[in-house]
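To fix ideas, we quote verbatim one protein's residues and fold tokens.
>
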Amino acid sequence: MKRHLLTLIFLATTLLSFASPISDLLERIDKGASRKFAIELKAGVADAKDYFELDQRGNRVVVRGNTYVNIAVGINWYLKYYCGIHLSWNQMHASLPAVLPAVTKPERHETDLTLRYDFNYCTFSYSMAFWDWERWQEEIDWMALHGINMPLAAVGHECVWRNMMLRMGYSEEEVGKFIAGPAFLAWWEMNNLEGWGGPLPLNWYKQQEALQKRILARMKQLGMHPVLPGYSGMCPSFESQVGKPADGDASVNSGENNQSSLQLWNGFTRPGVIMPNDARFDKFASLFYQETKRLYGTADFYSIDPFHEASNLPADLNIGEAGKAILKAMKEYGNEYSTWVVQGWSENPRPEMLDALPNGDVLVLDLFSECRPQYGAKNSIWHRPQGYGEHDWAFCMLENFGANIGMHGRIDQLLNNYYTARRDFSSHMKGWGFTMEGSETNPIMYELMSELPWINDKINRDAWVKKYVDARYGITDQTFPTVDHHSAANGIYAAWSALINGIYNCPDGNNQQGPSESIFCSRPSLECFQASSWSKMMGYYDPNTTMTAAMLLTALAPALKDNDNFRYDLVDICRQAIADRGRIVYNQLVADFKSFDRSSFKAHKKEFLDLILKQDSLLATRSEFRVGRWINQARSIGSTQAEKDLYEWNARVQITTWGNRYCADTGGLRDYAHKEWNGLLRDFYYPRWTYYLDILEQELDGKLPVLPVGNSSWQTPDNPALTVDWYAMEEPWTLSHSTYATEAEGDPIDTATRIIKSINKK
């Protein structure tokens, strides 16, 4: 009898491993992989903590946990630290060993941070604007492997608004004037702008509705709790001038005096905001949640950010009452058991709003915890003495702004802030999150953040980095068969030590937003430092350290040339080294110009421009660094020539001028989402720099009046170097349909090695 019972248990476990969403995930990683694991879901057990366990049964690895997501974390842990397989954005597939390494001793990891969030609204436009189902499927797998169980699910949110507006009597033309284009939907959703990049074709709504339904189904299959957008009071800025609601309810048009436009946002007209004491607020909220339910069902969490990045609120606005109205509508029309998720960013959520809301109904995402926490830490420039009061909150890592390409991290700050939060602010710290504006960069920071909650003891930073490198590159005793293993591996660790103690260790007190920006992407001048308007960039690492890392890695590249993670990292690290060398050369040519050193200026000018072209050729060897990948993603979504052209224009504008002339220049949005990408460097940034440096050279040659420097009293405002119409030079590229390749061209190892050697011969 006992033998039969054991047989039934084994069969049940076997069936579970083949029937669960985890087996599907494993099959997407490597066909046949699910047969090598035994998956055990311990659901229904009243655990205060989430956990996963690794064990062994015969020749199968056992992974058990109390949710599918926790089991996926266990799978990822096993692959990294037993198999030397690191699944990352650049590579979500792998070849598992025929016989998996045995788990010789059972291993258990647990965490009480049970709410694990993913995404910033900006991510949906800066990275995901044109993703199809295949790319989304990989992302959901990545989320599960990294422990995410409450991702923001904003795809197709515009479909809710379109349906809702049509029901209220708006025309398709008015809908088109309100809802933004595909590359700018995030800022429309955050109440920053309306209409820019549109109008959206009707086919877009059909595609995105269908895509969102597939996304939600997969998330729920894995046991995730998608966070749907909720209603904050947004309405079209022209709402008071229209409105013949389909149901004839005259109250929809009452209370025009209670609408606020909340000024402009970087030159864009913001949507209107209906105040909570306006009868229309309830009507809008009711229809909003009705359409959300009809399309996508209900949610346990709704994301709502009232008055986002808004100043000069109406003097008579009672922020506490506004919060109550928003919460009441969410509970009444959305889901009475749902939680309001709000971003902790700048002044939001305002203390007077939080004070008016009941504890337990709100979860605050502390958006930039690794740099400017607001949960109460005293050393933050955004210090809130009371934190978020008695409300629950999540420790989040922002890491990236504008989806800019660049190596960056705050590894010591992240560790220090995380451990301080766990020690001093743990009573209402219920989770953690990724809140990057752009994804697919700097994987080391996301691995560290996702592992922290599962490790009980404080980690040793350097020891953890060594384990990370071993897992990412599959470094074992067999990895370097032609050279001494220890000396070769030590060379890899030395390269990463230079990075971890330099570019990945942005220090406390440096509040820059994201990567140190490439000088190549700056609008040229004699005072260039950053590329975008708000990066708050400060120098914090020796730029020669990235070149040191690049030289060490290119020397060892032949032994790791078959590892895709290494090939990706080599290109990225060499890209950073070239960009850092470019900044040094730029400063030299500025000094040459100010010193009137013609020959030295011409030599440094040539070196600087050559570096841009070398960078462009290096980045061609990886599809992730090609502008063609972004543009062709956009065009592939379109069904007609007109749709393809509109989406391509959206894609091109977002990464360059961002807005029209006024918003780009006066509003300061130009180059906010700049990219060091193949094609863009050659055709957008290189012409800008060539044009400007040619002017300076002509001035040194006496062909043009010399640009005044220092305290010169003879100003020449008509000097060509001061009067360049950059927008006029940039806009033609946004309107172009020049073609760019998507797939990689050339060998990354050979190209990186050749370029790094050529730079260091000088």
Observations:
- The chain has a mean pLDDT of 92.
- The chain has 25 helices and 17 strands.
